[in-house]
Design goal:
There is one protein chain. The protein has 328 residues and is of the alpha/beta class. The chain has a domain at 3-181 and 221-252 and 288-303: NAD(P)-binding Rossmann-like Domain (Rossmann fold), CATH 3.40.50. The protein is built from eleven helices and 13 strands. A seven-stranded parallel beta sheet has the order 3-2-1-4-5-6-11, with helices on both faces. A two-stranded parallel ribbon has the order 7-10. Strands 8-13 form a two-stranded parallel sheet. It is globular, with a radius of gyration of 19 Å. The termini are far apart.
Amino acid sequence: MPILVTGAAGFIGSHVCLKLLARGDEVVGVDNLNDYYDPMLKKARLASLLGQRGFSFLEVDIADPMTLAGALSGQKITQVVHLAAQAGVRHSLENPRAYIRSNISGHLEILEFCRSCPGFEHLVYASSSSVYGGNQKVPFSEDDRVDNPVSLYAATKKSDELMSYTYAHLFGLPQTGLRFFTVYGPLGRPDMAYWIFTKAMLEGRPIRVFNNGEMWRDFTYIDDAVEAVVAVLDKPPLADVPPSRLYNVGNNQPARLGDFIDILEKLLAVKANRQSEPMQPGDVVHTFADMTLLERDFGFKPRTSLEVGLGKFVDWYRSTWMARTGAL
């Protein structure tokens, strides 16, 4: 049976597709290839998938009602990894309707599609560490209250969790939500700090450092995140009533932003021109994943340190992306 992966041209989605194909699974990838960031990057990710044995691709907007069901007519889908979403905390302040359409309407369409599939086995979907908002207790646990989001992006992801729980309760639809903590690595997102800082530092431009660098992030390397997705996919919460679970996917080792920049300076052999700025609306000071549940249920432990992961990103950026784009 083919596995459906939404957001297949996205950062996490493309890597999940590669992992599933490598172990012999058949994968149907869908993506709307929007221009939130440079489409060249999405095309580069997709190029690594097209032509691989067992992979097929459909350019589909999952938020269009019934479009997905029509595009996949005749496919016997019993497992879905739903990673398509409008990402970015700060962008949600400027374009809120895109988040409601993609993250809420799109999630609803995925739920309805899964409910319509005979013998459906498991939906794994992306949530976010953003749902923890400004919680002061660290590390963040799946049992913590998440009723006070500080960005619309976070509110949409919390809404997805609520909708999924409801469908599990009403229809017995097995689901697992994954709260990702700042996933980074090669072929990542150019709107994230590690990419923005690397590009600016190599070009000799200043970087914007919020809250004097006194912010902490639980950076999760892409290979670790993908390992968690695949492990969870293979083990639906069938014994739970309703069959719905949530897990943190993080590194369990938050790094201070100032120290993060120090690491980049060493890797790039470039001194950063740090431009201090206040906290931005929708941002939080800490993210810190309690990984107890994922380790208990799947034996999962993140393996990639920030120094190693950033080193792999910098190597890729210099050897591949700069050559492809002609960037400095």
